[in-house]
Amino acid sequence: MDTITEYAQIPSTSDLNYWEVKRRTGNYSKSITYVPKDMELHRRLKTEAWEKIQAKLPFNLRSRIFYASK
After folding, report:
1. In angstroms, what CA-CA distances link 20 with 33, 38, 39, 66?
2. What is d(CA 45, CA 13) in angstroms, rounded to the nearest whole number?
3. Residue among 53, 18, 54 at smallest CA distance from 34
């Protein structure tokens, strides 16, 4: 039985319900990349986190970069 998890923030990479593991092996190196399974959810969580961070800063230090939906 699958359970649906509601995320309020981006989880750690140990949460494999959220992340998909991409492994790559080269001639001399190996790498592991964690890619969100649901890109739209990830974009929303990243936007919310960015807004919270920016809201805590004084206005003159806030970034001019906005992660708004396109």
Report:
1. 8, 10, 11, 26
2. 15
3. 18
Query: Shortest CA distance to 67 belongs to which of 52, 57, 58?
Result: 52
User: What residue spans define the domains of the chain?
Assistant: 38-69
Could you tell me which residues come within 8 angstroms of residue 35 by beta carbon, excluding any fewer than 6 positions away? 19, 20, 21, 22
Q: What is the pLDDT of residues 18-41, one digit of tens each?
A: 999 999 998 888 999 999 999 999
- Tokens for 60, please give them: 């003159």
What pTM did the predictor assign? Answer: 0.71
